[in-house]
Amino acid sequence: MAKATRTPRPGISYVTTATRDRRPIFEVSRIADLFIDTLLHYRTLGHYKLHAYIVMPDHVHLLVTPQSITLDQAVALIKKGFTHRLETDLPIWEDGYTAYSVANQHDLEIVRAHLHQLPVRAGLIPAAELYPHSSAYRQTLLTPATSISSAKSTRKSAVASTTSLHEIAS
User: Fold this and answer.
1) pLDDT for 7-58, tens place per residue?
2) Which residue from 10, 39, 50, 137 has the fewest beta carbons nearer than 10 Å?
């Protein structure tokens, strides 16, 4: 049976989408990093504003505002773009997504703080800014005391896993 979803109003949306059968494909750092690169790529192209994100082992949470496209199109673009970049024939995503409208700036800050705390609450990390697959981590890397080149090298050093997607899928 299909999961009921709320239809978000135009504006900022809190989106959740899961991997097929909740496979923890994002436990592999290079796969999580590829997803983040895809997310940032389409943001740079101007398809949406990206307010925050978190890539959990088997699902993703986003705070986005579509720009030149609808929310449905933005989520489809992200999911299909990532699947294409991953170069796999295996199904990656569950169909659909869940989205909620974020009413105002105050609510955005509350939802963003909640989103960043999810890996802490799941016991994956002791502090939100230490989780490498989130916008909280990226913000920490790009503080004024950190140069962009050292932030990139720190991010690259976090990509050390050699587990393949096929090993996770089996």
Assistant:
1) 556 799 999 999 999 999 999 999 999 999 999 999 999 999 999 999 999 9
2) 10
The CATH number linked to 52 is: 3.30.70.1290
Does residue 112 fall inside a structural domain?
yes
- Give the DSSP letter string of the chain: -PPP---PPSS-EEEEEEBGGG--GGGSHHHHHHHHHHHHHHHHTTSEEEEEEEE-SSEEEEEEEESSS-HHHHHHHHHHHHHHHHT-SS--B-SS-EEEE--SHHHHHHHHHHHHHHHHHTTS-SSGGG-TTBHHHHHHHTSTTS-HHHHHHHHHHT------HHHHH-
Position 164 in a domain: no
pLDDT > 70: what percent of the chain?
A: 76
Q: Which domain holds residue 30?
A: 13-158
Look up residue 165 and give its two tokens: 């997607």
Domain count within the chain:
1
Residue 163 inside a domain? The answer is: no
The answer to whether residue 24 sits within a structural domain is yes
Q: Whole-model pTM?
A: 0.79
